[in-house]
Amino acid sequence: MASNLNTLDDQFGKSSDWIEIHNPTVQTVNLDDWYLPDNASNLKKWRFPDMDVAPGAYLVVFASGNDLRDPLYPLHANFALSDTGEYLALVEEQPTAGQPGSYDPVVIHEYAPAYPQQAVDVSYGIPTETVISPLLTAGAPGKFWIPSDDALGLSWTELAFDDTGWMDVNTAVGYEIDAGGSVVTIADSTTEFSGVQGDNNWYYGYLDVTANGDDTNYTAMPSGTDDFTPFLGGSSYGAWSDINYWTGVAWDFNPVGSGTGNPPWTSISATGMHPNDSAPGPEHYTIRRWVSEVSGQITISGSVNNVSGAGDGTTGRLFHNGTQFWSQVTNGTTANFHQTITVQAGDFVDLMIDTGPADNDNSDTTNYSITVTAEHNVDTAIDSDVQAAMHGVNSSAYLRFPFHVDDPSAIARLELAMHYDAGFTAILNGVEVANSNAPDLTSLSFDSAATAERSDLDARTRTFFDITDDLSLLQVGTNVLSIQGLNSSAADSDFLILPELIATDLLADTAAQRYFPLPTPGSHNNSGTSILGPIISAASHSPVQTQDADDIVVTATVTPTFHPVNTVQMHYRVMYGGLTTVAMVDDGTGDDALAGDGVFTATIPNTAASAGQMVRWYFTADDALGTDSRLPLYLDPIDSDEYLGTMIADPSVDSNLDVLHWFVQSPSSANNRTGTRGSLYFLGEFYDNVRTDLHGQSTAGFVKKSYDIDFNRGNRFKFEDGQPRVKDINLLTNWADKSKTRTTLAYEVRAESGGPSHFARPVRVQQNGAFFSVADLVEDGDDDYLARNGLDPLGALYKMYNRFNRTADATSGVEKKTQKSEPNTDLAEFVNGVLLTGQAQTNFLYDNVNIPDLINYLAGFAITSNKDCCHKNYYFFRDTYGTGEWTMLPWDADLTFGHNWRSGPAYFDDDIYADNPLFVGTNNGLVSAVYNDPAMREMYVRRVRSLMDEFLQAPGTPPDELKLEQMMDAQVALVDSTDDNANTGSDDADLDWQKWGSWSGTDASQPGGTGSPQTMREAVQRIKDEYLALRRDYLFNTLTDDGIPVQNRIPPQQVDLAAMPPDQRGIVFGTIEFSPATGNQDEEYLQIVNNNPFSVDISDWTLSEGISYTFAAGTVLPAGGTLYVSPNVNAFRARASGPSGGQALFVQGNYGGHLSSFGETITLRDAAGSEIVSTTYQGDPSGAQQYLRITEINYDPAALTAAEIDAGILDNDDFEFIEFTNTGSETLNLADVRLTQGLSFTFGNSTLEPGQFILAVKNQQAFELRYGAGMNIAGEFAAGSLNNGGERLKLEDALNGTIHDFSYDTQRPWPELAAGRGGTLEVIDTNGDYGNALNWRASSLYLGSPGEAGTAPYVDVVISEALTHTDLPQQDAIELHNSTMHAIDVGGWFLSDSSSNYRKFQIPGPLVIPAGGRVFFDEDDFNSSGGPDDFALDSANGDQVWLWQGDTGGNLTRFADMVEFDAARNGESFGRVLNSEGDLYFYPTQQPVTLGTANSPPRVGPLVISELMYHPPDHPAGNDLEFVEIHNPTTQAVPLENWQLTDGIQFSFAANHSIPAGGTLLVLSFDPANGANSARLTTFRDFYGIDASVPLVGPYAGNLSNGGEIVTLRRPDTFQISFYPLLLEDQIDYSDTAPWPATPDGTGTSLQRLGTLLWGNEPLSWQGAAPTPGAVDFATHVLNRRTFYDNSVFAATPWTDHDAVAVDKTALLPGQSATSSNYISYTRGLNGVMIDVANLGDAVQLNASDFTFQTGNDDEPDLWPELGTAPEVLVRTGVGIGASDRVILSWPDNTIQNTWLQVTMKATVNTGLHAADVFYFGNAIGDTLNPTASVHVNAFDFGAVRENVTGLAAIDNPYDLNRDAIVDGADLAVVRDRVTTFLSAIRLISPSVSPPPVEALMESPAKSGSAEPSRTISPVPNSALRSEEAFRAAAFREAERWSATVLAEDPEDDLETLIALLAQDHLTL
Q: Which residues of 1297-1322 are buried (b: 16+ CB within 10 A; e: fewer)?
């Protein structure tokens, strides 16, 4: 993929190009010594890491230039691909022939001399063709056996089983006693006539001859073009009308309404048809269609009779899939037909009546009849007759069929095709893969019989079973398919087993090269195309939720590849009618939004379809050479969507449930194992060509059935917003459950009790536009299910049908759901362990069972009362790659809440059982063993009690507080909201009752049933009365009685230990083993001991402080019991000495972190967060643990230089090193200190002096070549290399104690410069958190600083501005800024846009940038030579710019700066911007270009994100209450097509989205336009009190983070060849910590912008207030107050005010106590103050009268006199914090000296404030900021100035008291002249908060009272109002100043001391 834009992002979110490699062999290939070059002259350009590629596997390598080779992360090659074509090869280094020890690079595969030109998002490579390969065919040899007992178990299905004594057979195998068969009727047109399309597989419609343009060409293909047009409507669509052609007795064309006009006479009744000629038009031929439900030979019989001979008659015509096979004219006569054809299930058989030879309308009424029959027998298929062996002997037979597979990895699909009578179970290499009419595996025995009979016609019909999911079972070479064939009895008259295995192979044609419009990175390629036509993408339609009156506007982006686009067409069909083709346009006419933007548009008129109907379409396009394309590609007919589509909303479907719309051409075909294909519409998404078949065993015989639905690979199913998509679902019947609540309720209880649970909920199913059922939508148990429940999807999951009572239970009754390629060895070992006895069994259980999970699982049965376990109906899961423990998971929850399965009535026992036993599952050996262990039994009954108290609640609980009753009521409210007559009601439950009824004891379809029919409400009430109430009494009263043995008794409710005194809680910490003897910290542990005489349920309790762990649901401490908690339970159990495994110890883990050798605090808290017990233990660290530190890591060294290659260095990993430092004051002995994780290295007998460094290196020779000799090197790594993608490093001392245990990474916020870009990792704080990325920096020196202290990044010269989008005659430009007080020569430095080549442009020198100066370079400098290093900046995708310091030899020496930026507007710069927190952004600037001058503030909007609800309060709606509000403050409406929200969330605006002038738009987490979300929409509007006038759109992908993240609004730029560059319109990088407002984090307030011109990334631009979605009203706020340095000059350019601000001074606010940060000490006094105001009232009219100024020196400012001198008032708009307005008040020098100034900004029209704002600044001439109780000028100040006589002084130097930029004797004189006494010094005042009100946030009436009452906008930190460059320079000077020794404050203040110091200073001077 050489032009990647959207196909695949790398781990950094970048759309890097990529290369896919494939291992087509049957052997694992190790890639060590393999290479990828893009240059034929350098075949070893990029080396693969040491990693394996499995047989048939694929590996993707990103071609980004980043050189990342960690096999645990995505790989990155050190080059990029060219879209114009270049060389590319896969190379292996192989031994040189005849030269031992020598190796040569050998090209394994190459694109030479180059691959051709590439197109955006189209990949290129080797095509894969699909070839159908039969693995097992009719006539195949096999073995046959009639078993006489169960002695073989399932061993006979294993590959290695010896079947030499069995009977030889060939397929088909069977017998037929009643040879000759009988004829049966399959279909009858008269008796099966219906007003429902598809009923009994009959359809009614016509051929539109006028539209077709040809009465001789009729096309009707099941998967393709179909000219058949079905009549609209049906019996459920109301009266005969223009949208319903059903009259009540016949189908009659009626396009203009009943009884009006002169419609065409086109009609079909049960026995008659009438075609229509052209008067009135159009011309129609009537068609009665039958869709075959069988495969095989059928006979079509019947007649047609044109009743009157008055005209030219009519013609009867029969078609099979559009091919005519009979035709005859009838004119007053009868024409009979009797035709035999061969069909497949799903084929079309059409009877057409046309208007006769002369095409007139004279007397065309024609009677007709059709009968479809077939002969029944199986004898003709039989090859091996086994009647003698089987008939009358056994109903079961065992068959084994061997077959051979050369390469399983080449097989993409595997199908089992079966002819069978009457049932079978198929087992592939010992694992069940398919079955039909067979018992569950748990009850399958040697003499099992089929569960249902099967007709001979069905037996002769080939039934397909897709077993692709079981491909992993295949082995290279011989395999075996074992089949247990089943008859209905031993006396059955016939038997048939004919299996065929059909493989679809993928064969890569390495000689061919093709384009792939649908790239498939990481999986097999498709067939591709050698000639690439236009690319069709980004298909959409509007409105998304289409109403009956809406036209459907369909769009697609069509991008030319190598030739111009010629034509674009859309082809649509309604339901299963014919195709209509529409030309698509991009000319701006009609519904096309914009001409020439590459988005083509077509419209489907609203008359084409009616409510409830499906509309599907696909696109085609061709170029000028006729090369065409299609979307969807539809490359795989059985695993891809054929159409895109939607459905027309049906207003008559009024449901509280989500509605699953199911469209299927042959509904009855779904009622078998073969299944059929159809389409689904759910939650606003359309799924086409999905497979549906019959689900279940017992339930397969129900009237109302269950279905499996499998989705295509490219369009997985979304069952809920915010949840991962799934590949298949189960649509389960609730026929046996009259309440329709049990399955959903049982799984909800499971989920809320803390255990794994299936996603389950009721849905309404509409089939072909008509009500079908209420069903339970349940996810399947697979790897996706495991992942959603927080379990490892790589673990082993088994579906179980056995009892753990025998060794065979490892294979018998087992269906493996994951890791199918692995044998059942793990399960066999577990079964053997369970079968142990005594203490051995107990030890095994404690070491191999996830006890809390299993206890919680079993305890749940006490609530749900599911007796249908544990002989079957459960999953068994092993955390294979984690703890290795096993547990049970729930499955099949319909027999719950008192509904039992009972022999006889089976599912249909209407009695309710409230006294099901407490101990469920005793028929299972594992469960029995758990119950028999006293401690586990105690855990079980305690957990049962906890769940009882949570869900059932004690008798006497008020009814409105009963949880389970409320949960059931919620279900009823959804399904049966109205308590009305079920026979006439319209709720979903009523409709289900009317369609399916309810079983009873007299229901013949359910023999053995008991009871009477019940409605949903009746059944639910029975559960409440006869189960919940009685179960409550049974558990809380009967089973808690003292008369019950204690081991069977339910204990009392658990005591609230937190409410007890700490010394009486009884839970204590026992042993804390923080330093295991082996040194393996994973073997550490701590004990929790329960000293109470009762058990304690600690589910959801937590361990915190030193370590972190949450105890799983079901964790119970028995009375007197001990729990061991470990960071690694496997390591704990493997301890060489106790405590360890094999001792029946209760162990839990794995906790986060490790116990510290230094000692720490551990706290146990209950589920409510209350502390139960806490302990602090004392540690014992070694010297190495205390003082030895890793200080630098070079894990991905810079690329090799030519000199290094010449020296024989071949791998840049040879330069790896780790630097260690002794941070203590004593010498460290390093002997046996070692690295044990990441790589292997052990120090020898070496020592390390205090402050010294020592190195461990990969290759000492290479290291010294690059860094020089003479460094302190301890040795080379013993094994391994540092991982380029990050890894865990563990450093241990000689006693195995942990020194370091941390992981580094390459992904942000880890420094990227260290990832192969020339830098190394340097730690910042050796006592800080090594696992925290913010404690690491990249080395500023190129190649790092091994053996010496690292240095902070060089920030004196920075990249300050970049102009990146420059239409001619503009040029790209890059500006550098010298932020220091001295000149810097940048000659010889380098600028580049690529981290793979930093040396692209070397700045010619000398080039001196003066202090504070700027210089810029444009394309005349860096893009004019015509050489390969020329570059321009990428304005469409964004780019980077790097600045490196270089030397005269052209070498890189030191990293200087790097900036990144997005796509840009033409002529707009990006510049460095800081917010008030000092966070740096490279952001679009307010003024387009400021090259050579200071940057302007950030541009804002004009559209802005005005409100964010990122953390709604607790509410059942949850994240549905999130929203993002976008505001348009302009005077013009803004269309939002192709705009996006990105970063934290993702949302693309549609063509119909816009924001009116001054208006807002809310973006939600769900789709408000989707009718299925109507309840969610109502909840949202009701919660916020907004009506339909507030526009809402959605859903965005993801959720707004509660902790903060970036949300960016982007607008499209001019359309590029295949995409819109996205420009940054607005951004908010919010947080939930100060200075961002805190209340929006879950308290109910939202984050609201204070003004449309305030910068979004500035915290002070936002407030927390009551949410007002849809309304904006921006009040006036004071954001910031500052004073200035003396002698400030305000330049004409507004933003240079930054350099005048006193960065170390903040305003004193009322209620605060003054500090030195609130006053200045300069001789000219207080020059002025600056106030930043959001939404200033009137910037022009504002004047001094809008303020009052008072001076004083005490705590009563109300009594201070007013200042007599008015200030000059200057307003600069848009230059303040967050682009606010800046008010500058300035006074002449010496006006305000040695006093405090109170500034009151009044609430006036000019200020805009609703309440006055008050603050204070002071002046104390001569003070040097010593933190004294009063501000004395004394000897300390004199000494401080003397110690800092430095010559030139920066503007913020506190010792330059006279502001002359020099610290000298004059400043000492200022101190001498200003020495204060107690009375003369100013005081550190504490002004009160008395009126006028302070810091009041102005609110408009609309938002009055909505602001946070406690929020005070704090003074902005020092960095806020200075340029970023100046701030960084100041920060480093401050760091240097504070690292110097500071004089202690002299407590004495006498004149003698001062005179002495002055005299000393005089001599010095």
A: bbbbbbebbbeeebbbbbbbbbbbbb
